[in-house]
Amino acid sequence: MRHEPAIGARRNGRRRMHAETVPRHLPIARILWVVLLVATVVAVVANAGELRQVWQAVQAADRRYLAAAAGIELAFVVNLALFYRSTFRASRVRAEHGRFFLLTSAAHFVNIISKSGGLGGIALYLQEGRRSGESSARITAAYLAAYVLGYVAYFAVLIAALVLLYVRGSLQTAEVAASIVILAIVVVSVIVMATGLRSKATLERLYLLAARPVNLVARPLRRPPFIDRETAAETVSELYDAVSHVKRNPAAYVVPFAHALLVEVIGVATLYVVARSLYAEVRFDAALVSYAVSILFSMVAVTPGGLGFVEASLGVLLVSFGVDRHTAIAVALIYRLYEFWIPLVLGAIALQLLRERTAAPAAS
Questions:
Q1: pTM for the whole thing?
Q2: Which sequence spans correspond to the domains of the chain?
């Protein structure tokens, strides 16, 4: 009995030594949050001059049209949430109405900053799925469905814009080249997905092929493998079944596709109203062409949200439609206020609110 305290002390010492030698897992959510925060700060600081120019342009604009543009931006936020919510529901994934407004704004923010081609935001939906106990396979299938619908809607607008430019005789090599690049990326992505979905065996091979580079990232972060190879067959089976549901029920995605088209229409309307606020005589078809091509350059640009590239391309296009150079620059700057800077701020706030609301139940 006299030796028990000494033995217990030695055991406790071993436990402490073991705890000290085991590497702690770095919280991946915190790491991503810090990276996104740094990227946002860098983007704001690097473009402080543009923000000052935006403010100067706003002071010269008609306040009534600016208020109308703000209302259109609110419609964009609501419609984007409805687009993802309706797509997820069509894919048999539960979608809380209020929380999805935060999710879509936060995911939009992640996609803007990360330059991930629209795929970066899936991490937030997967995290939400773990919180609610939803299948990650269904969430992945739903997000991919939204991804495809969004690109189909945009390409419909882009094709209309390119046809209008061709008819006017002002279609440039840069617009054709950028369109080909984006189209090639989307086509390759669709081919890879279609190849993987031909059979469960093919999908499992692609899944395991992707596991190696993805799991390499986990090592420096001291995390367990992100993709568990032992449960690959079960995960692939769930994903295959979820995507098969999407293919069997195309009619369920009519409403989501309508919301996807409305996203593009709202973008065109925003540009049109902003141009009117500066008394620029821009027709709706000119706004459509300018919007579609500016979004195209934001996709191929290396900067977050195409900063710099969008403003330049949009200004040149507006000048080609008869707007004087100074007014065209002002229109481009104010348009980016609504199309980039306001969603960026709203998304950052939404991401922080999500973190707080997710952490609150865990703390309690």
A1: 0.77
A2: 29-170+256-359
